[in-house]
Design a protein that fits this description.
eight-stranded antiparallel barrel, disordered N terminus, mainly beta, two-stranded antiparallel sheet, about 60% strand, 2 helices, 12 strands, about 290 residues
């Protein structure tokens, strides 16, 4: 009986070892999935604001020289340099990132401005109606700028260098002071008078316009955190040469009535501007894609 029990135990032990030998050494274990690497994208729309400085130059000239309208000889011009003035406004646009790092988009912006300049007439320094010898002065002011541009850029993750080009508009005001004559009215001499038309007075014609031109620019934008980005941009505006009508309201009319006296002036205009701004982008959470 003892011999039978010992034989059974030995058979069970040998069978277990044989079964263990048939089992695989170890099952392969799948490595854990790596977390996706976030990839920034400039695709999306935005709204923002900017402040900056603008400066430029306006060249005044006369297309013709009727009686009394000469502040500069025909063929000559008077340059009015506008010193650095404040500008500030807002922008709205959309971008689309494609072919890896390239970014294309469109943007519109508007800025209030205070870009002004003044120059004295060097041609007719003594030709003034004032007895105190006040010079003839030409004044120019740009009080608004607007653009609609396309934008092409190249991005390095959250940094982008870009260029812009498109249409531009400027709202301008002009005046000339202390002229002895101006424009073409009912009377041949085109004098100006005081409010009762009893005494000769200086002609001070004024005018304003909104003119269309073009602009090019270059800028740099940095996505700092969340949906916010900062930018710095330089713009050149060219508005060409336009004929502008200036009107003196106190022309000497018949009797005791004053009449408007109008005359044309050719004005060529260029403006430069440097802007600092910010943008808030919509949908940037979905614009950050996953890359494994």
């Amino acid at each position: 009986m003892k011999k039978l029990l010992l034989a059974s135990t030995a058979l069970v032990a040998l069978g277990g070892q044989a079964l263990a030998a048939d089992l695989p050494v170890g099952m392969p274990v799948k490595a854990p999935i790596a977390a996706p690497i976030p990839v920034f994208s400039w695709t999306g729309c935005y709204v923002g604001g900017h402040v900056g400085v603008g400066w430029g130059r306006k060249d005044f000239s006369e297309p013709t020289e009727p009686f009394g309208q000469n502040f500069a000889p025909v063929g000559s011009s008077i340059n009015v340099d506008t010193g650095a003035g404040f500008l500030g406004g807002g922008q709205i646009g959309c971008d689309y990132q494609f072919a890896g790092n390239w970014v294309i988009g469109a943007r519109g912006d508007f800025a209030w401005a205070h870009i002004t300049g003044q120059s004295s007439d060097p041609f007719f320094a003594g030709k003034t109606i004032n007895s105190d010898g006040s010079p003839i002065t030409l004044n120019a002011k740009t009080d608004a700028l607007a653009t609609v541009v396309g934008r092409l850029g190249y991005g390095w993750d959250r940094f982008m260098l870009y260029g812009t080009s498109g249409a531009a508009w400027a709202r301008d005001k002009y005046s000339i002071t202390n002229l002895p004559f101006w424009g073409a009215g009912l009377n041949q001499a085109n004098f100006c008078a005081n409010s009762t038309n009893t005494q000769v007075a200086p002609c001070n014609p004024t005018g304003s316009e909104t003119r269309l031109g073009w602009t090019v620019g270059v800028g740099f934008e940095w996505a700092i955190a969340g949906n916010w980005s900062l930018l710095v941009e330089f713009n050149h505006y060219d508005f060409g040469s336009r004929s502008v009508t200036l009107t003196a309201l106190n022309g000497a009319g018949p009797g005791t009535v004053t009449i408007p006296l109008s005359g044309s002036v050719d004005i060529k205009q260029r403006i430069e501007a440097v802007k600092l701004g910010f943008n808030y982008r919509f949908g940037w959470d979905s614009a950050v894609a996953a890359r494994y």
